[in-house]
Amino acid sequence: MSQRKQPGTDLEPVAGNGLLHRRLFLRGGAMVGVLGAAGMAHADPLTVPEWATKPGKRPLPYTQPSPFEDKVQRMLPDQNPLYEPGAASGRTPHQYLEGMVTPNGLHFEVTHNGVPDIDPARHLLVIHGLVNRPLKFDVNALLRYPMTSRFHFIECAGNSASLYGSTAVKGSIQQLHGLVSGAEWTGVPLSTLLDEVGVDPKAKWLLAEGGDASGVTRSIPLAKAMDDVMIALYQNGERIRPNNGYPMRLLVPGFQGNVNIKWLRRIRLTDAPMHTRYETSRYSLLLADGKAAQFKLQLDAKSMITRPSPGYQMQGPGFYEISGLAWSGNGTVKHVEVSADGGKSWALAALAGPVLPKMLTRFRAPWKWDGGPAVLQSRVTDDTGYVQPTRDAILAARGNKANYHFNGITTWQVATGGEVSHVYA
Amino acid sequence: MFTRSLVAALLIAAPAMAAESPHFGQPITDADIAAWAIDIAPDGRGLPAGRGTAVQGEAIYVEKCAVCHGFDGVGTPADALAGGQGTLGTAKAIKTVGSFWPYAPIIFDYTRRAMPLNNPQTLTNDEVYALTAYILKLNGLVGAKEVMNAKSLPRVKMPNRDGFTPIYPGNLK
Asked: Rounded to a whole number, what is the distance in Å from the CA of B29 to chain A's nearest CA?
């Protein structure tokens, strides 16, 4: 790839409707000024604000975001008071976030009967079933094991489910795609504990169970458990919060969120999957012919543009950075393409490293908006060669009753005047 | 000399020690696990002693379940537990225990561990058998006085028994 072009040529579109070369970022931001609003100088003398003239507050034991950022909140569902708490969720406000790590207080959650207050001194993990020595581990014992730390996304199988519907919901990205988050998880590899109990050769699956009032149980292939599953104790450096499974959760990288059992209390080694309610009635994909695809566990590659996204108000024609997230439950993001003309032409986005397997990857693309209508899309390809499909392709293959694992391309329409909204392409 | 060979020995020993597990787990007997080991396999393995009929189940259902699942399991505000058979392949698919669930023993498993939502894990095994019988009866799958127990429940064939296609580790379009 030639790097010899003059700066000016970088500002020429590489795809329709003003998409510029990602080299603009790869080389550093110096050229961006060329696109900015230069020559706007008018009389506006600086003043000294009051916070510079008196001492600030004392340190706090646990800090909170600026009060000026109080719009950055998780979105909660309208709960039905009759069966509160029931199934409930908190969705990540991706429209306000950057980078690849979701702050702990904004990580999404889905709970099926509320968040338990678990006393770690009374919590145990039991591993039994097809094993040589059933064992119990208390939290303090697990905290003494050699730990691993890895970055992984978790995505609810029901994330983006509304896109199976026949009309495009006019929601924010938080409402449409807020059931995915990314974090650094630290804990004990499950394979270490399985070696200690001694797995019977007849065991092929395991059943993992949560210790809360919903008692979710899920079957997980033993091969996956031996590969990269972790008993996670820490999230982004601090102990996992109750909403995400305190004092411990199962982390099953790349598998649908529900399998990542929170408040983990028990693992039974089995010879076959257990066909629990959460892997039959729920989290299976009902196809057009009335058959349900079961144990569709890995989440296929997906991407979304987080900025601009619905609710964002464009501030006149000129330079914008398109920013978004891409991920794959089957591997690593290889590249992300961005379109401003509804998929007629595509430009490669820059990937903001590190690009890690089964983790959110931040992508960015420079865009010169001419102020007219534009149709923004992103499309990820992962290192298995899988290309994120269109919504039409998903509906053609699965029908519209599948409810789970929607990973099609999302379309944001930018109207003249700068309003951004969700549409179907 | 001594120090150097000690260092050498430590260097050799270190990787081997890192690979060894600390073995901080404590042995536990099946009897001690019993209160937590409440999972039932689809073929009925794990079903406890006890029994119940739909007639007995109806009384418990009206008292403890109908407020959320509606009388006769018609649903609202929570899931419908009956009806919907024959709809899965249509545009208006209705998923209920009767139309969608592949294995009868899992009704016992889920009801015992998770219901009633406001008081899970408080039903006796007899009550759970009776409620399971009642849900099956609402779906026309057992008679009102048919006894459900560890032997008879696994024999109830759910209409959608063959409705699931396991695809792990394959991929879907």
From this structure: 7
